[in-house]
Specification:
Number of strands: 0
Strand content: under 5%
Radius of gyration: 21 Å
Number of helices: 4
Structural class: mainly alpha
Shape: flat
Largest sheet: none
Length: 102
């Protein structure tokens, strides 16, 4: 790939990314009143975080079974309202325990 081709692709990608981020601010000037759209926009960060974190957690160990056990323990203790440190340590301990026995 030549430098000219690389920089043209880079410029196109940067322009596209910039437009996606700037156009909503430029075009939407008043407050969004629609409750459905507001709820969708509220949950987008959580959905993106889950979509990025879950596959990484599944493939972070040698065995998918141990990863699923760690995720299950983490979800259980998070649902119970435990601290982030406790949830992380419990999930790691579950992964190590399952890896030891499998």
């Amino acid at each position: 790939m030549s430098n000219m081709q690389f920089f043209s692709y880079l410029l196109l990608m940067a322009g596209t990314t910039y437009l996606i981020r700037v156009l909503p601010f430029a075009l939407i000037t008043k407050k969004i009143e629609n409750t459905f759209i507001r709820s969708v926009l509220y949950y987008i960060p959580y959905a993106v975080l889950a979509a990025m974190t879950l596959p990484a957690a599944v493939y972070a160990t040698r065995n998918v079974i141990s990863a699923c056990a760690g995720i299950a323990v983490a979800v259980f203790f998070a649902y119970k309202g435990k601290s982030l440190t406790f949830v992380a340590v419990a999930a790691c301990a579950a992964v190590y325990a399952v890896e030891f026995f499998v």
